[in-house]
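Dear colleagues,

As part of the handover before I leave the project, I'm documenting each prediction I ran so the next person doesn't have to rerun anything. This entry is a single chain, and its sequence is reproduced below.
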Amino acid sequence: MPEITTGMGGLLLWAAIGYLLGSVPYGIVVAKMLGLGNLRDIGSGNIGATNVLRTGNKKAAALTLLFDAGKGAVAVLLARAFAGEDAVQIAALAAFLGHCFPVWLGFKGGKGVATHLGMMWALAWPIGLVCCLTWLLIAAVFRFSSLAALLATGFAPAFAIFLGQGELVVLLLVLAVLVYIRHADNITRLRNGTETKIGSKKTE
């Protein structure tokens, strides 16, 4: 954990900023802008890039991935520019929660993986790089986005320790737990062998 140098009011401010940045549902926005329909009615109904890919529009999926990762990174970079590292971690966590529980969608959002990876690049790019490489490797070998996400985020605290970023371990542990909770149904399907592979237009 970083040293607490920001007052409670400042921490609450950065929590609000992070949440509002994270709560923008770019998957839904991109899908509507490109005429792909209501993302809630497609595939799993999730607002993330993996579900956008089920529309068959790779450009839309790439834009969603970029924007969802970007909002996590922006939350971190803004807090780092104007406050201490304690506020940075608060903004990062709040951005993740904003994506998963956006007020605009009745607190029913995405699973937070792209936002997690984006904020990791901004928090400590070596960890972000290793997490992204882990995701890409697992996704390429097994073709399961959920499995790639679970392993990339689950190993993030260990990567932080190995790379000398111990002050991030608690935050990354909390984020990993939240990612696993958000992927509870995916974990069940992985165990049952019914999980949908990357690129599939149907959910099981």
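The mean pLDDT is 93. The chain is about 70% helix and 0% strand.

All the best with the project,
I.
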